[in-house]
Design goal:
Strand content: 35-45%
Number of domains: 1
Distance between the termini: 31 Å
Structural class: alpha+beta
Order of helices and strands: HEHEEHEHEEEEEE
Radius of gyration: 14 Å
Shape: globular
Low-confidence stretches: 9-33
Helix content: 10-25%
Length: about 150
């Protein structure tokens, strides 16, 4: 049962997860227009909440966002940006990968933006969503060190 819950969490985390620096390096200009990156992701399965902070494109994201874990269990759901900044809906998948997480399991998240509202319309529909996240055995999660969540 715990494994199923963690699987669901990882789906949810995909919404709020980082892009590795290597991915950014290969993506180059493709990430330049119509994207935002966030330098921090934190949350837990038990709180049913993931928080993003240190986000770029502050005029359109407000610099932060949140997402519920249960909303994302199906592999899709909205990031709600800071007050009055709108939402970005993403569709994601994840795969277990890497060994960058001490005492946790690393997952790579990939997907795309499927819709947006409000000021967040600056984030391009169809754009890539990428991240690397660590999930601990206690259900807490965060970005892999030196990576960012990109949407």
């Amino acid at each position: 049962m715990r494994t199923i819950r963690h699987f669901r969490l990882l789906t949810a985390i995909a919404l709020a997860v980082p892009v590795s620096l290597a991915t950014l390096a290969f993506a180059g200009p493709a990430l330049a227009a119509g994207t935002a990156t966030c330098s921090k992701l934190s949350g837990s399965v038990s709180s049913n909440k993931a928080s993003l902070s240190g986000c770029t494109d502050t005029a359109n994201t407000g610099g932060a966002g949140t997402v519920t874990v249960t909303t994302l269990e199906s592999g899709k759901g909205p990031i709600t940006w800071a007050t009055s900044h709108g939402t970005t809906t993403i569709s994601i998948k994840f795969t277990q990968s890497g060994t960058s997480c001490p005492s946790a399991t690393e997952y790579k998240i990939s997907g795309k933006v499927t819709a947006d509202t409000g000021k967040a319309k600056s984030i391009k529909v169809g754009g890539a969503v990428t991240a690397d996240v660590c999930l601990s055995s206690t259900g807490s999660f965060s970005l892999v060190k030196n990576t960012k969540f990109a949407v």
